[in-house]
Amino acid sequence: MPASLAPRELAGQDILSVRQFQRDNLEPVFALTEHMREVVRRDGGTDLLARRVLAALFFEPSTRTSASFIAAMERLGGSVIPITQGVQFSSVSKGESLPDTIRTLEQYADAIVLRHPVIGSAQEAADAAQVPIINAGDGAGEHPTQALLDLFTIRDELGKLDGLHVAMVGDLRFGRTVHSLTQLLAQYRVKLSFVSPEILRLPLDLMNEVRGRGLAVQETYSVADVIGEVDVLYVTRVQKERFTDLAQYEELKGYYVIDEAIMAAARRDMIVMHPLPRVGEIDPRVDADPRAAYFRQVQNGMFLRMALLAGVLGKA
Ligand code: NCD
After folding, report:
1. Of 18, 174, 276, 299, which is best to mutate to test ligand 1, by the most ligand atoms within 8 angstroms of its C-beta?
2. Residue nearest to ligand 1 atom 1, measured at CA
3. Does 141 sit in the ligand 1 pocket, CB within 6 Å?
4. Among all residues, which ones are annotated catalytic?
């Protein structure tokens, strides 16, 4: 895995972890993302990736991420082999190994997007593949493209990253988007607050890494402790699929609900984000508040993935 990637250096590379991205070469990725946004708004898309094929292999349910990659590829003039309907319809249900599935798909496709329930599966796929592998979530591990679009959204909405106070709320233990975004934000001069029930605290190794960088860090159980100060409230769903004890999930799932009363205590220039899907963590009445950025965040995902696909396929 190369240490550091700008869009042009992405050519032929896998995207497995946010650790591949350093703040100095994130700016070119974001500039290309802005360019993709202009192109889509002006012309609907381009033919940059005409006749290129992406395989989208999703072993876990996905609406946004799969649709986002498909839309991104098609707006670049390419096409997609969508294997997103669950493995029950595929050869995997016959017992095929992940490396074999990957080595088969790369005979058809120029790159493969993979979502899989096991941590490290994206790396396993990359070890087997000749074509670039893009990690679209490996269990409770990482979700690098989500974190990049999250970071792009913060910068786009608030105009900067340094100096911000970002609070992550909810399932910080199993939420892979939180794990990836925390690592990216740790490269900036930010204050990070982690708001969760005891049992869903951020993994200790990640906490130690953030503290090791000398960032201001706060942990609390209560949104009220931070709501008046934060620039970004990043809300997450309790990750039901990672629980072995469903009774425990039921106890935790309604722990935080961001509603109009909570928003009344928040700053006027802050934003609320969520990787979605939400299952009750944000009251739909908050959607009309201009500070609710989560649907704009979804659209940014398509532009950001257009930039990454162009980079990986050597057209950036
Ligand atoms: C997230 C995921 O799959 O990790 N969703 C997404 O990609 N937008 C968050 C989640 O499922 O809670």
Report:
1. 276
2. 275
3. no
4. 64-65, 94, 115, 143
Mean pLDDT over residues 145-154, rounded? 98
Tell me which residue of 148, 189, 192 sits closest to 167, measured CA to CA: 192
Element (H, E) at 75: helix 64-75
Segment 188-243, tens digit of pLDDT: 999 999 999 999 999 999 999 999 999 999 999 999 999 999 999 999 999 999 99
CB of 144 within 6 A of ligand 1: the answer is no
Please report, as a single letter, which amino acid is at residue 304: L
For the entire predicted model, the pTM comes to 0.95
Ligand 1 centre to CA of 33 (Å) is: 21
Question: Quick one: average pLDDT of 34-49?
Answer: 97
**Cα–Cα distance measured from residue 308 to residue 316, given in angstroms and rounded to the nearest whole number:** 8
Query: What is the 76 CA–ligand 1 centroid distance (Å)?
Result: 24
Assign 3 a pLDDT band (cuts: 50, 70, 90): very low
Q: Could you identify the atom of ligand 1 that is nearest to the CA of residue 115? A: 3
Q: How many A from CA of 177 to the centre of ligand 1? A: 7
CB neighbour list of residue 287: distance below 8 Å, 6 or more residues apart: 295
pLDDT tens column, 287-312: 999 999 999 999 999 999 999 999 99
Q: Is the CB of 275 under 6 A from ligand 1?
A: yes
The closest residue, in CA terms, to atom 12 on ligand 1 is 237
Q: Where are the beta strands (DSSP E) in the chain?
A: 53-58, 79-83, 111-116, 133-138, 165-169, 191-195, 216-220, 232-235, 271-273
Cα angle 153-135-297, degrees, rounded to a multiple of 5: 15
| Cβ–Cβ under 8 Å, residues 119 and 140 | yes
The single-letter code of the amino acid at 259 is: D
Q: Check residue 50 and report its DSSP letter.
A: T
Q: What is the pLDDT of residue 86?
A: 61
